[in-house]
Design goal:
heterodimer, A: 219 residues, mainly alpha, MetI-like fold, 8 helices, B: mainly alpha, elongated
């Protein structure tokens, strides 16, 4: 592999992968907390809708959803999504559904007495969530979120099938240009493994900090 | 744009062909994942650090890199090394290999959860190693981990569309071929998407029931 291939394809590809990861993680976190908290709402209708969302988006394959947003949605609604945004939307919506289950599990793991204490202090439901439930639930969710983030990182490779120029797509171009596969695909796999390592390490550091704030140690 | 039922009807034969391939990949891939996972799990517990460490690195590497890139790696690189497999075989191998690293973690957790007294009892009865594993440890471990393995089968199902990337004729690829011929993108892709929910949701209910049954 020459310097040109690195400079023109692989390095920009890595940057696109990082952008995709950041974008869909942000959207996914938003979806996860909204839907996850909605699943503990007191109204059954809200709980049902949130449950329906999780089941549908966890049931459908992320790649199918991506193709659907990219090929089916434009003629239906009359405007076209930029591939990058279709990718972020599909990844964020489907991985957000998995995240919602983590949020729900984390909230359910907070001792009931804590919620009751919030009621006794006549907090509004939102204050209860914001000041009592979430501060205790979030540190417990971090290890699961770390795993999900690794899954999301791996999921970003799917966008190369839509022609978004991420690092997998760059690998494909390099293969076409050099007519050799072993080198470039090994490099690509190593790049993903390194990115995953960075994600794991940062999440571990965050977990340690968050749990120190609660006075709990990390196993 | 309107929904066209006749396009759905036209897609039906291809859809069934695709579903058959998807299920075939799923069944064979699961078998590979279940057996190979057990091999990795045995590697985690090996006496020598020279076995444990490489097994740990290899499985961690496979688990943290994308299945899609692994598919391309096997599909393009194996022929360079003189190994010729069909796309379907490559895809099944890749998905089985990828998920074996997940099932390995599940097995490990299951085996670790077997009480130490069981191991000690097996030693006290001087059972040979294979009897200890096959008749004492694994039957108890498998009971605990069956639901977790079930969840990974569902996850594998949802990853089978990736095989379209190396032109395996599973459901997504069939819908792409149909769209390329008829220029109708809405119906085939939607049918496939709905099919995934229709298979995955009852399957997840099944796993949940299994979980509740085995918990007691």
């Amino acid at each position: 592999m020459t310097a040109g291939l690195w400079q023109n394809w692989i390095l920009p590809g890595i940057w696109i992968t990082i952008q995709l990861l950041a974008g869909s993680a942000a959207l996914g976190a938003l979806v996860a907390f909204t839907v996850g908290m909605a699943r503990t709402h007191r109204s059954p209708a809200v709980r049902f809708l949130a449950g329906l969302y999780t089941e549908v988006f966890r049931g459908v394959s992320a790649l199918i959803l991506m193709f659907w947003l990219f090929f089916v949605l434009p003629p239906l609604i009359g405007w076209q999504l930029v591939p990058m945004w279709a990718a972020i939307l599909a990844l964020g919506l489907s991985y957000g559904a998995y995240g919602a289950e983590i949020v729900r599990g984390g909230l359910n793991a907070v001792p009931v007495a804590q919620r009751e204490a919030g009621v006794a202090l006549s907090f509004t439901p939102w204050q209860r969530m914001r000041h009592v439930m979430l501060p205790q639930a979030v540190p417990e969710m971090i290890p699961s979120f770390c795993n999900l983030l690794i899954e999301l990182l791996k999921g970003t490779a799917l966008v190369s099938l839509l022609g978004v120029g991420d690092v997998s797509f760059a690998a494909y171009l390099v293969r076409l240009a050099t007519q050799q596969s072993a080198g470039i695909y090994t490099v690509t796999l190593v790049i993903y493994a390194l990115l995953a390592l960075v994600v794991t390490r940062s999440m571990k550091a965050w977990e340690k900090k968050a749990k120190a704030g609660l006075g709990v140690g990390v196993k | 744009m309107n929904w066209d039922w006749s396009a759905v009807a036209d897609f039906t034969p291809r859809f069934w062909d695709g579903l058959l391939v998807t299920l075939q990949v799923l069944v064979l891939g699961s078998l590979i994942a279940f057996t190979l996972g057990l091999v990795w799990a045995a590697g985690f517990r090996a006496g020598s650090r020279l076995v444990r460490w490489p097994v740990h690195v290899v499985t961690e590497f496979i688990r943290t890199t994308p299945l899609l890139v692994q598919l391309f790696f096997l599909f393009f690189v194996l022929p360079e090394w003189g190994v010729q497999f069909s796309a379907l075989t490559t895809g099944t191998l890749a998905i089985g290999l990828h998920y074996s690293t997940y099932t390995a973690q599940v097995y490990r957790a299951g085996i670790d959860a077997v009480p130490a007294g069981q191991w000690e009892a097996a030693t006290a009865l001087s059972l040979p190693a294979h009897r200890t594993w096959l008749t004492v440890i694994l039957p108890q471990a498998l009971r605990r981990i069956a639901p977790a393995l079930g969840n990974y089968v569902i996850a594998m199902l949802k990853d089978t569309p990736l095989l379209a990337g190396i032109s395996v004729l599973e459901m997504l690829q069939q819908s792409r071929l149909e769209s390329a011929e008829t220029f109708q993108y809405t119906e085939p892709l939607t049918v496939v998407g709905v099919a995934f929910v229709l298979i995955a949701y009852p399957a997840s209910l099944l796993v949940r029931t299994l979980e509740r049954r085995l918990a007691h």
